[in-house]
Amino acid sequence: MRLPAGGRVSVALAPAAAVLLSLVAGGVLIAAVGQSPLEVYGLLARQAFGTGYGIGQTLFKGTPLLFAGLSVALAFRAGLFNVGAEGQMYMGGFAAALVGAYAPVPAPLLLPLAILAAALAGGAWAAIPGVLKARFGAHEVINTIMLNFIAYALVAWWGHGLFVPATVRTRAVADAAWIPRLDGALPWLRGSPANFSLVLGLGLALALGVFLFRTRMGYELRVLGLNPGAAEYAGVRIGPAQVLAFALAGALAGLGGTSFVLGYKHWFEQDFTAGAGFMGIAVALIGRNHPLGVCAAALFFGALAYGGLVVNQLVPSDLVNVLRSLVILFAISAYALFERRARRVQA
Amino acid sequence: MSPLSALLFAAATLRITVPYALAAVGASIGERGGVVCLGVEGFMLHGALAYVLGAWFLHDPWLALLCAVLAGVATAGLHALVTVGFRADQITSGIGINLLAAGLTRFVLVTVFHSSSNSPRVAGLPDLPLGPLAAIPGLGPLLATPLVLIALLIVPLVTWLVFRTPFGLRLRATGERPEASAALGLSVPRLRVTGVLVCGALSGLAGAWLASEQHSFTDGMTGGRGYIAIAAMIVGKWHPAGAAAACLLFGATEAAQIGLQGSGFPSALLQALPYAVTMLALAGFIGRATPPRALGTPYDPEEA
To answer: Is the model's pTM score more than 0.90?
Structure first.
């Protein structure tokens, strides 16, 4: 994965083109099943953005995507491909649920501790491929994919004794570990499950922007991503920097699990991530690894995720899964073509 | 373990190994040419659905098998277009294709069969007349299954193709030093696309096996098998025979896990074993697994 080259316009133009092309391709699919693409897309947009409840649902669906997108983007900036946000989010959600349900601490400490547990579990899980890369040069892509599957297996094993009998969920966390819903503060989001973990995510997006573009360590990570040779020459200790980047990325992904576990269902449920970690790749891709872009992309993919459920009366809801994956394929193709042209112009 | 239960265990292992081996051997061809083939999961899933669609509408399991191969090749063609044609990132393309297949197969399932979980029952591939061999307990019926024979033949065939033919030499050269292949007058894109398409064909066969065995398509029926196949290919050091051997190891682990269910042994942990073994192999604890040198790097003649 290379970072965007070329002017500011093409940085935003290529993702927009990718989204547009995938909507056109999706339109062909809609027409193929005998529906009107405009009607389906119109319904999707109206439901996802037209009412307070719809916006709340969009924000709720977008919340884990925001965290996963930030996670993948941070790793990308350091030249690392984190395909493991799914497993990191899974571990983070599991840890938050366990602390929220079992930790014997005073009530006011429970929520901060549960959130911290999510960050630590995700960070520790992600540090593994970081260490394997730094110490043994093992490529992180396969390792992070393998760790996703190992996370599922480990949680299934632990969960065996922990899950509420005849279910695949843990017992509910204590009330003190609940993340409050947003509609308490913003009544127009009435009834939607959007919760304050979104605010945490937006805060972290801001923090990530400051970290990447305003601190020495963030600068070093970016140099590492752009040119490892130059980074080493400039005195960046590559191994520790890679482990740090992975641990931070994992912490971000792990925190993404809090929206569902502490803010919505109030328990951990098997497969609760439902691919949000993988979608983080699409979010980072469309957001061009910039915190601001990631926020916008998470909103877009959140709207798609909620919109898929409401267009189900007209077309199979899996239309949105097709759209999401087409965005990925169109985006990487467009980036490669744009970049090649940019290099040619420079040459 | 009695001889009979050993035979049954071998049969169970072989049954699980077949789709892994087909996909892993396919991936070893694609990756030897220098293209990361993470999309085998999606190639397989499309192959499985195409088999069921073929069997349902054409009423012929052999034509259904052809459909599966074509679907695998077409999906691989998309991967080739994105990665070789547009020189886009190969890893992301593979993941995108897997997400596409997960969504598209369910979309088609709902549209054609009005169910988001499974297709109706279709015919499986008929057994081959093996005579007395078919009477071996456990293994006999399995050996009479055409795709098992195909899988058993494909491993030596592909090994020969990759290591003993001019095509194999050129393919490997393209995966190691594409600029050198190009200097010899070879077409790097054509070789790479061929490798990816063969990978698609074999993955399509793997999908057909799953659908034919189960006589239906179920949502997400590949269940990560494509990733296991990639893992086996890495453990097998990008060698078709090594990949197949690793698949056999993973297949035996899975068979043991199924056998141990309910015995009190933490069989869920065995499930994680192939992934852990793969990580150890990548870290160099089980010999060094070195990928083809140019793996994952798009080839641009103007920059070489």
So the answer is: yes
Taking residue A303's Cβ as centre, other Cβ atoms within 10 Å add up to: 23
Chain A residues within an 8 Å CB radius of B279: 132, 138, 142-143, 146-147
Torsion of CA A293, A298, A304, A306, to 10 degrees: -150
Angle A119-A123-A125 from CA coordinates, rounded to 5°:
125
Q: What is the pLDDT of residue B208?
A: 97
A9-28 tens-digit pLDDT: 668 889 999 999 999 999 99
In chain B, how many domains are there?
A: 1
Mean predicted confidence (pLDDT) in B216-237: 94
The reported pLDDT for the residue numbered A9 is: 65
Using DSSP, state whether A267 is helix, strand or coil: coil
Q: What mean pLDDT value characterizes chain B?
A: 92
Place of tokens 């659908």: B211
Residue B52: which CATH number? Answer: 1.10.3470
The percentage of residues in chain A with a pLDDT greater than 90, rounded to a whole number, is 86
Residues in B touching A321 (Cβ below 8 Å): 99-100, 102-104, 106-107
With cut-offs at 50, 70 and 90, classify the pLDDT of residue B1.
low
Q: Which candidate, B125, B147, B145, B137, places its Cα nearest to that of B21?
A: B147
Q: Please indicate, yes or no, if residue B155 is contained in any of the structural domains.
A: yes
| 8 Å CB contact between A326 and A25 | yes
Q: Is the ipTM of this complex over 0.85?
A: yes
Packing angle, helices A276-286 and A85-102, rounded to 10? 130
State residue B284's pLDDT score. Answer: 82
What is the pLDDT, as a whole number, of residue B304?
52
List the domains of chain A with CATH numbers: 8-346 (1.10.3470)
Residue B132, in any domain of the structure: no
- B74/chain A closest Cα distance in angstroms: 15
Chain segment A109-140, per-residue pLDDT in tens: 999 999 999 999 999 999 999 999 999 989 89
User: B268: which residues sit within 8 A by CB, 6+ positions away?
Assistant: A153, A156, A157, A160
CB proximity under 8 Å: A 167-196 to B: none
Tell me the pLDDT tens digit for each residue of A126-180: 999 999 999 998 989 999 999 999 999 999 988 888 999 989 999 999 999 999 9
In chain A, residues 324-343 whose CB comes closer than 8 Å to chain B = 324-326, 328-329, 332-333, 335-337, 340, 343
CA distance A177 to A166: 24
- B35 assigned to some structural domain: yes
A225: Cβ–Cβ under 8 A, 6 or more apart, which residues? A3, A76, A77, A78, A79, A80
Q: Flag whether residue A318 sits within 8 Å of chain B, measured between CB atoms.
A: yes
Supply the range of the domain harboring residue B76: 8-126+138-282
In this prediction, the residues of chain A whose per-residue pLDDT falls under 50 are: 1-3, 5-6
* Residue B299 falls inside a structural domain: no
